[in-house]
C-alpha cells in the first residue's frame, strides 16, 4: 500500500519555527529531497520507501489547476516551488466549466475546493459531488481536496473517494502546498502504474485461460491406440501459435488424426489455426475425409484469412478400426514418421503431396494407403521441429536429421510422452536455444 500522504501537521519543525520555510529561490538539494515525504524518503511503486529521492518531475515544471470560487484571493498560490526549485505554474478556474477548458495534458495536479457547487447537485444530495465530477473529468490527474479547517472527516472521505490528499484551506503555506502537490503527483503515478500492472496481469491470465481452452481435447474413447502430444508456440509468452492438431474417433472405429501449420506466428494466425482445427473436427465427424475434406477446409481458409497470401499446410491420417492400415493425405506438409519394432524409423511416402491449402483454387489431394503393421508408433509434426539449426552454422536439422534422432531415441526404449519430450528438447539443444517457430508434435501408438 502507498505511504499515507503527509498532512500539514506532519512537519512540526516548520510549524514550531525550528526550520525555515522555502524561499522563492528554493532550498538546497538536500532540503528539497527531505521535503518529498515526512521521512525524507519517497515511496516506490510497491508502496515501500527508499532513501534516495527519485522524482520524475524534477526536470519538468509542475502545473497546478486551482478550482476555487475566488482563486485570486488565495494566499497559497504565490511562491510555490517544485523539488528542483522551479516555480510551480498555476492556472485558475472559478467553476468546472472553466476547469474543463484549462485541463490539458500538461496539468499535473488539481487543487479542488470541496465547497464549490457541482452541476445539477445540491449540497444535501452529496457533499462530495464536485469531487466525483472532477475525478470523472480528469481520471489521469492527481487531485488535492481543499476543505475547511477542522473538517478532517470530510477530507478523509475525499481521499477514500479518490483524491490523493486533503488540505485545510486556512492552514496552508507555499512550502506545504508545494510538497503536497509533488507528493500527490508521484502517488498518482504510482497508483496508475500499479493499476496498469494489475490490468496487464489480468489480461495475461485471461489470455492464458482462453488459449488453454482452445487447445484440443482428443476424442479417442473406445480406441486402443495411445496418444501423446507436445506443443510449443514460437511467440514469446504465448500458449497458442499458428500450429494446430486434433484426433477424433468416429462411430465406425476409425481414428482420424490431423496436424497443420498456418504461415506466420502472430495471434491472427493462431486464431485461424483454431478455426481450421474446429472445422476439421466438425467435417470429420460429419463423415468427410480425404480430398473432399481438404477441399472444404480450403474454402474455410479462403473465407477466414485476413490476406490472400495466407496459406496453411496440413497432414491428415485416418487409421482403420483394426489399426493395421491408414490413409494419408498431405497438403504441402512434411510426411509423418513411422517407427516399428525391429525396423528403422522411416518417413511415409510423400510422392503424391498436394499443395498447401489456400495456394491453388480447385486443387486436389490424393489419398495414399499405408500399411502400418501390428505394432507401431506414428509421429506427426510441424516444420518447426525440423527447421531448427544445428549449432552456430546455417545447417538445419531437416527430416533426415530428425529421422536419425528418433531412430536412436526409439532404440533407447523411449515411447509416448518421453519420446516427444526427448525429441523436442534435443532439437532445442541442437539449435542452441529456444526455437523461433511454432512446434507441434503428436504421437499415435498401437501396442498389441
Please tell me about this protein's structure.
This protein has 10 helices and 17 strands. It is of the alpha+beta class and 448 residues long. Helix 9 (398-411) crosses helix 10.
Concise account of the structure shown:
The chain is of the alpha+beta class and 448 residues long.
Q: How big a fraction of the residues is strand?
A: 15-25%
Count up the helices.
Answer: 10
Coarse shape: elongated
- Provide the structure class: alpha+beta
**Series of secondary-structure elements, N-terminal to C-terminal:** HHEEEEHEHEHEHEEEHHEEEEEEHHE
Q: List unreliable stretches of 5+ residues.
A: 1-59
For the biggest sheet, the summary is: 5 strands, parallel
Average pLDDT taken over every residue: 81
What is the assembly state of the chains in this entry? single chain
| Alpha carbon gap, first and last residue | 63 Å
> What's the arrangement of strands in the largest beta sheet?
4-3-5-6-7
The counted number of beta strands is: 17
Helical fraction equals: 25-40%
Radius of gyration: 34 Å
What descriptors fit this protein?
disordered N terminus, 31% helix, elongated, five-stranded antiparallel β-sheet, 448 residues, 10 helices, 17 strands, five-stranded parallel β-sheet, alpha+beta
Give the arrangement of secondary structure elements.
Layout (H helix, E strand, L loop, with lengths): L11 H4 L13 H6 L7 E2 L5 E2 L12 E5 L21 E5 L2 H7 L6 E5 L15 H9 L4 E6 L4 H10 L3 E4 L5 H41 L11 E7 L10 E7 L5 E8 L4 H19 L4 H15 L7 E8 L5 E7 L5 E4 L2 E5 L20 E4 L4 E6 L16 H14 L4 H16 L7 E8 L2
Parallel strand pairs: 3-4, 3-5, 5-6, 6-7
Antiparallel strand pairs: 1-2, 8-17, 9-10, 10-11, 11-12, 12-15, 13-14, 13-16, 16-17
Helix pairs in contact: 7-8, 9-10
